[in-house]
Amino acid sequence: MFRTPKELVAASSRPMILSILAGGESYGYEILKQVRVLSGGRIEWSDGMLYPVLHRLERDGLIKGRWALTEAGRRRKYYRLTRKGKGQMARDRESWRAVHGTLELLWGKGNV
Amino acid sequence: MFRTPKELVAASSRPMILSILAGGESYGYEILKQVRVLSGGRIEWSDGMLYPVLHRLERDGLIKGRWALTEAGRRRKYYRLTRKGKGQMARDRESWRAVHGTLELLWGKGNV
DNA sequence: GCTATATACATAACCACGCAAGGTAAACGG
DNA sequence: CCGTTTACCTTGCGTGGTTATGTATATAGC
């Protein structure tokens, strides 16, 4: 398994979190698992990285959190995507694809 | 035009520079233009960002520089990829594709 | 001849962000 | 009862882009 370079984590955390929340509410601990599963186990985020990101995203109005209590008695902070967050997600996708397209050009479109 | 987020610049600078040099020698100022052209004008790197990256890559033994003088009388520092750099490029490509694949999953493979 | 632009490199102060490590707290399984 | 999982949070450190500034030379326009 490859350790994801931290710069790549930094570049992908916002788009990935916003995209996950575009599919419905979620909370920190679950987002960690979703990333692990969606990536087929190739991406492993630390919680020490995730929570500050969530706070920043909320501070910037891209997501909105609410505290909830499960029947089991666990407290969770559920986040949902705001309209502003949806716009940011679209812009992030554009810039991501610009960079990705350039890299794929260099790597040769179909091969390797 | 979208300003590429700096985290995305940070994530892509090393793989992109290594991949460019995998196609043959180049130098700082030219790399800036290559990135602009390859991206269809969507990516615009600053030279204040590029030169420190080149120094780091050379310090880490991923690329090797040599000074040269053009007929016109300009000094240039040409860089080439080392074997170590080639290995790093391959690993960078792996982790990039892991992240990209996950994002595309979230975005829906073919659409938008 | 002069001057603006392009070429070509470099560095410094500032800010943002992940990582490792540590902390709190409660539920659950054996 | 005790380790593991769930679930949140924060701090110190190092890394890396941005902006601004500096140096030097060649070329093009007037």
What does this structure look like?
The structure is a homodimer of 112-residue chains. Chain A is of the alpha+beta class and 112 residues long. Chain A has a single domain, classed as Arc Repressor Mutant, subunit A (Orthogonal Bundle), CATH 1.10.10. The first copy, chain A, has four helices and three strands. Chain A has helices at 6-21, 28-38, 47-59, 83-107; strands spanning 26-27, 63-69, 75-81. In chain A, a hairpin with a 5-residue loop joins strand 2 and strand 3. The model of chain A has no long low-confidence stretch (mean pLDDT 93). The A-B interface holds A 2-5, 7-8, 10-12, 14-16, 19-20, 22-23, 35, 38-40, 42-43, 91-96, 98-103, 105-107, 112 and B 2-5, 7-8, 10-12, 14-16, 19-20, 22-23, 35, 38-40, 42-43, 91-96, 98-103, 105-107, 112. The structure holds a DNA duplex (30 and 30 nucleotides).
What features would you highlight for this structure?
homodimer, 112 residues, alpha+beta, Arc Repressor Mutant, subunit A, 3-stranded antiparallel sheet, 3 strands, 58% helix, DNA-binding
